[in-house]
Amino acid sequence: MSDTAQPIDPATTDAPRPWSPPAHIVLVEPEIPNNTGSVARTCVGFGLALHLVHPLGFDIDEKACRRAGLDYWPRVDLTEHADLASYRRAMLAAPGFWLFTARAGRTLFEAPIRSGDHLIFGRESVGLPRELLDAHPDRCVSIPLRPGERSLNLSNAVGIAAAEVVRNMIGSGGLSVDKNGRLVASEGDRVGQ
Prior knowledge:
Layout: E1 24-28, H1 33-46, E2 49-53, H2 63-69, E3 77-81, H3 84-90, E4 97-100, E5 118-121, H4 130-135, E6 140-141, H5 154-172, E7 175-177, E8 183-185
Parallel strand pairs: 1-2, 1-5, 2-3, 4-5, 4-6
Antiparallel strand pairs: 7-8
Helix pairs in contact: 1-2, 1-5
């Protein structure tokens, strides 16, 4: 710091408060690079962490994935896991998790999702492994659709879930919206902790 520079007082500036992800989006074995790129962009926009569980159906450097994520990729809070077992071992300390499946009777809007929870989505073609869903029936949630409709596109489903998490956090005071319409950590809070 130079002799003339003064420390910034966060209470008197519009500087952002410390940020920790309000939730974690987990994609288990995603197959379509464009979806993953779009999800990455959603995560950056809402300040969410992204976990990719291998094997992936594409190379993360694939052009379609990068194009869908545009210039957001350098800002993605990304963690990669070798496989589902590795993810599960690494995330034992996660505060909570929710398994997204079209077969759940409980909806996203009824689930008590809290700050720091993991929202887990399966492959585009088959969803999450049946044994995982069967092991945690109380953690299965769906996005309600009209009768006869199977599911939403993965990136759309993640967008709906991410917006619901942010809406809940604004309602509970964990996040607020500043005068410019931007998400900020509420005073005295560090989001996600």
